[in-house]
Amino acid sequence: MKQNTPTYDLQCQDLCKNFGAFRAVKDVSFEIPSGSFFSILGPSGCGKTTLMRMIAGFEDPSGGDIRIKGKSVLGVPPNRRNVKMVFQHLALFPMMNVYENIAYGLRCNGVSNDQIKRRVQDVLERIALPDVAEREIHQLSGGQKQRIAIARCMVLDPDVLLLDEPLGALDLKLREAMKIELKLLQHQFNTTFIYITHDQSEALVMSDNVAIMNQGQFEQIGTPQELYHRPRTAFVAGFVGDSNRWSGKVRSADGTGGKVETEQGLTMSFSAGAGQTIGEGDRVEIFVRPEFIRTVRAADADAIDGDGDNRMDGTIDSLLFNGANSRVLVRTGSGELIESDVTLTGDNDLKPGEAVRLVWSSRQAMCFAGGEQA
Amino acid sequence: MHSKDIKKLSLILLFSPFALWILLLIILPHIGMVVLSLKEKVAPRVYQYSFANYLDFLHEPIYWNTLLRTGSMSLLVTALALLIGFPIAYYIAKIAGPRARGGLFLLCLIPLWVSDLIRSYGWILLLRETGVISNFLLWTGMTGEPIEFLYNDAAVIIGLVYTVILFMIVPLVSTLDGMDNSMIEAGYNLGGNGFTVLRRIIIPYAMPGIVAGCIVTFMLSAGSYLTPILLGGKNSSWFTEQIYNQFITRFNWEGGAAFGMLLLLFTSLVIWLGLKLSGQTLANTVAKS
After folding, report:
1. Nearest residue of A to residue B191, measured between CA atoms
2. pLDDT (tens digit, 9 = 90+) per residue, B202-218?
3. Domain housing B5
4. What digits encode the pLDDT tens for the residues B53-75?
5. Claim to verify: residue B241 and residue B124 sit in the same structural domain
6. Which residues on chain A are in Cβ contact (under 8 Å) with B207?
7. What total number of domains does chain B contain?
């Protein structure tokens, strides 16, 4: 057992939840330092919502312990936990105006009317909506509702704020703006935020730390950069960011790198994923991110230099123009498509049908053993 | 052009049964009743317009006492139906699983497949002096002689609550069903206990359904005739009985029409007051469910 340390706002230890024979959450352990922005990222149905509901107290864990500020909250009903939650559809009370929505929690705690007035006004100013107190909920815009839902929780000074995919219902533009806004709000309140999402860009942009969850388990916890550049499992490598993905068999290896032949018959050099030792004859999966593949015209191919120990020739099948995030799909000799990021300047750009050479470094070809067929 | 005509024709064809129904069965009879109620018999087959029938009502305490009694008893029936119906509706909408929900709803509907008359006779079988309950108490020895449970106010109220409770449950289930569960969870999460969540979140949210259910049950209860007569007998003094007496026993159609209009005005007034007090409108309660 770990010593209780006050620097952690939330600690979970070997947390499990079973629904009948189905194990929704399996032995999840993690600790969240005070005042940080922590995301739990995973595909739908991975158990992240169940995990959050256990922290909030709406589900009882089948095993393990949850500690908030060092104190176990097992058996504490949801209304006695100092953990507040922003629901997926916000769950603002439509029969109350903004003021009453925010005052609700304070009233439940028996705060005096003068205090309530002061604190509601205070929190409204902090979310930069000082004049909406008397508005009805349906008169607010999507982004304003979002902020009111956060204010309604923050006015109670929670130890931990849980956010259950609150941006899911917003349109793209607003979602982008709210990402930054949420991060700023978290800084301002300096409260621990736990953010649940299946949208990786939300998790990567906002979080100090991200946990990747899959089939009820945490695959990896780390900073967004760590997860992106040094994934520890094949699932993380495939789930975070875009990747070209091959499965194959190792032909030769020296422990940290080597050569592999893919099922399509391509041979390439790789480096082993974090902390892995890859032996000869192992079945592996290789991930290469599109931004690490350089695309050059076949005519200029001989001129390139540097660390491009993997080379492949092909023709451009199609061009996916998306401004700065433009991408080409290159069909290789063996008939498969490889994605590669390109910079399009609008002048003498690559065009579909052109013969090109793809170049990438073995250090950018992350390899994981035991490639289960995806 | 052609298709426009067809559209027009189909609209007329669809609309006409409804219009005929409203016109022939609701508007015309009520106009007739108003006209009839304003006639006073001055000599055989000689009538003149006056408010005499309405003044009769005011001058005879037994009439307006009966109306007030009908009103207050109906309010009691409505309150009881709400008190019993709300937990049932809450269970159906929020606690029962999706499969149990349909079955439970059906169970609530089944009594409606039997006519009012048969349902009342069912209660008579149970409550009369030689009925099931009385015999059971005799058999267990809890009482020495048969007890008559019929022909009192309690029997009338039991019978009426049983008849109208479905009309309370249906609108309540539909409003509670539309309530997001996370709203209730948010209520707890922000520190509310069960009572606070019920009082500040669930009931205010369900208010349109509550008001809609109350309006319908109150109207049905105040306007019912069979149940009070059969279960309350001579003691029931329901206002509909007075109307029946005017029309059939005394053959005083003018008086009966006036009483009918008074019942309509009275119940409308009560509902208007109820809507004002609860801050709801007809449009977001009855019209919605």
Report:
1. A79
2. 999 999 999 999 999 99
3. 1-37
4. 888 888 988 888 999 999 999 99
5. yes
6. 95
7. 2
